[in-house]
Amino acid sequence: MTILLTLILLIGGAVTFAPNKVDASNIYSSCTAFNHVYPKGVAKSANTKNKVINRKTGRVTYKPFSRGTKVSSTIYHKAMKNNPDLDRDKDGIACER
Predict the structure, then answer these.
(1) Pairing of strands 93-94, 70-71
(2) What's the predicted TM-score (pTM) here?
(3) How do strand 42-43 and strand 93-94 relate by DSSP bridges?
């Protein structure tokens, strides 16, 4: 009887299983929280360059972003809308490592 009831509920759609989906609509309080989901950060485009500022001289150079950085304009813009501090150097890469 229990098996029959379970089958009826599953077939009828009363019980649904949704994956634990994490998207950029979450508000990340810090880069630490953001990097749990996107370990190398998120770039807004594939042409984005990583802005590097030398702490001693203040000289600015640009390098390609790290391998493994996710490229997504949608995620980047949603993250910036919710917390602009995720890209403090304003180079187009949120929480780069």
Answers:
(1) unpaired
(2) 0.67
(3) antiparallel
- Residue 23 CA to residue 3 CA, distance in Å, equals 36
Say which residues have a Cβ less than 8 Å from residue 42's Cβ, sequence separation at least 6.
Answer: 24, 34, 69, 70, 71, 72, 75, 76, 79, 93, 94, 95
Domain ranges of the chain: 25-94
Q: What is the per-residue pLDDT across 42-89, written as a single tens digit (0 to 9) for each?
A: 999 999 999 998 999 999 999 988 899 999 999 999 999 999 999 999
Q: What are the pLDDT digits (tens) for 18-47?
A: 444 445 456 788 999 999 999 999 999 999
